[in-house]
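User: Show me sequence and structure for the first protein, then do the same for the second.

Assistant: Starting with the first protein.
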Amino acid sequence: MSLEPFGYIPLSLFAWAAQMIAFHGIGYAFEWCDSTGRLRRFKVRDLDRMSYRALLPRVLFNQTAILLPSMLAVEYLGLAFVGAPHLTWTALVLTMIGMLIGHDVVQYVAHRHLLHHPALMNRLGHALHHQTGASKAISACYQSSADFFFEIVLPYLLPLVLVGGGGASVAFHLWTTSLGALGGLYEHSGYDFGLAFRDPAATGWRKRLNAALDHLTTSMAHGYHHTRGNVSFSDGFGTPGICDTLFKTRWDLVPERVRRRERAAASA
């Protein structure tokens, strides 16, 4: 797939536009479910008091004034979105794996050690995002400008640059941006489709299969990040959760009493 017939359009702009279509299309689909009650049995969090309309202006500002210029800049500097128009299957798989690992590491470092630092959480505005209850899909991008840059833009573009920029492969960039949009929206939607696989009567291979499908589809990790605060900094839907597992900050590895003690010490 190539953009040669549309060579006057920067690939980064094309990828951003595709991401906006995916983000706002999926985001509005979740909002439609909220307003109509569809999929109500999967709605496990309903904590947000801000409406879709109230969340939208800040989300659009972040996406157009911060994400888009950043994507255009890395292409202008020749760091990403440039090069071969096609990736071999081997290169595609290795690049995707590199992106997953890189995103996990960058987001974990920025999220845990910068945005959740006691002296910086309010100063960088991450507290604004935590005012939402992760139960409105588009609240994924309801953040201060600094927070949005460190938690959304940097974990996307820095790994992309480090793995070689993805070349000029339209397919790769559309796939990457669309998956990223879906993951963030679902984590903040308040829905947990893993419920479909929690059958207490299941046994044997069916129980094991259900457990695997539940793990792959649940939004529980990021829900716990919003309700408990100091767990699951990069662990969530569509992410490998490497750093949270290695440093034992994954939600199911941190007992509630430990979390309370750490928060008390941080505020002392």
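Switching to the second protein now.
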Amino acid sequence: MKLLMLGSGTSTGVPRIGNDWGECDPNEPRNRRTRVSIIVENDSGQRILVDTSTDLRAQLLANDIEKVDAVFWTHDHADHCHGIDDLRVMRYDRSNPLPGFANTGTCERLRRRFDYIFEGQFGYPTLIGLKNVKDAQLVAGFSFQFVEMPHGPVTSTGFRFEADGKSLVYATDFSEITPQMIKCFKGPDLLVVDCLRRRPHPTHAHLDMAIELARKIKARKTVLTHMDKSMDYRTLCDEVPKDVVVGFDGLDLEV
């Protein structure tokens, strides 16, 4: 199984508009962060895309990805779903809509916001067949589990994907570690985890919380994501434990 990190940045990306790099060195290419999204690929070449970030088109082009086999959404915040229209070209050579999965509330809000994607309009076909994650157990060669995570006043869905004897956990946009998360995520080969900044934040995990989750679930390796302009790549690499990788756009990692 393989992880491809399409985007590793927070909702405004790095740099922010105005060429604001904060504490990030603009001469370090791995500090240039688009909005978060990943692809998980199994040994058969089947791919699951998690979240359709605002920067999805550029991410897919940069990584030479022309198709995926299914899409999962963690939640419906703009930086995680507003690139959904860029999936249109993946429908062109399919006889049926691309499978999509999210929790009940996210499904409802995505259908309301992007009705043309899920219903088809004016002669255009339905692009994505959206289903509740609780109604599926095996998707594109992957088995998976999911759990709802506190994300400030709302929730985000965390996923555990398994294929080819390996397991990958994707936990982004959470503000608290719950017993349910620990139970679902226990013992993964790879954890990809929310890590907005060093200081605590009301809706996101900070560095200490990200590492705490990795320790509690006994992750073999951990990759940090969703980082803001205070998280300089090289500085952070010198701070984290040896089994923790600072994520970056384009990171391609065997699980």
